[in-house]
């Protein structure tokens, strides 16, 4: 698969802090497709939530070995200034951006009765507000001198809400926001899609969770980070350019009701 030749060959990816994460798999796939990359990540989030340090420097070295230019952009997307700053820095170092792939999230388990206002607000700031501000800044680069022929924006979502309430609720808002972009930003040549990949083990699954997820998946196995990357690569390609304004379930049939 190759990037749509109508798009500038540079992309900003968010949520790319760990080499075994979904964002890292997407970065590898796009690097193979000849895309230069700006990688946004939060070192504090990886330690606070994933309980392991970011190893994005090692990922960047892998991508550079493939001949790609790579820019690392650490920061906290709950800061309302950071999304536009990330787009500006990516453009300054790579030139016009042809793609925005948003794999970032705030995800801390809690329920209706024990979610704190502080936690809910942080989920909203990262999963919804930052997504809006990233998409806005990405779209505004088109109006700036019309130096890029539009682009493609993709966000990752989830419908897991029970006992993960603020995460699931804010991902629902993210869906509506990003899909609206296909219509609101059409005059700028921007297309948008959302991917729901189902459960992907990036280090958080226990054996019990892995077995239960596999049993609920008609494909007979769980998806992998590479399966998400494959769909992103298709959507950013010329062959995938007709897909616009879609919420795509790429989950092997996980939790799909029997017909």
UniProtKB/TrEMBL annotation:
The record, for Gene3D superfamilies, names: NAD(P)-binding Rossmann-like Domain
Which keywords label this protein? Oxidoreductase
A Pfam family annotated for this chain is adh_short_C2
Q: Which InterPro entries match?
A: NAD(P)-bd_dom_sf, SDR_fam
Family membership? Belongs to the short-chain dehydrogenases/reductases (SDR) family.
Protein name listed in UniProt? SDR family oxidoreductase
Q: Which organism is it from?
A: Brachybacterium hainanense
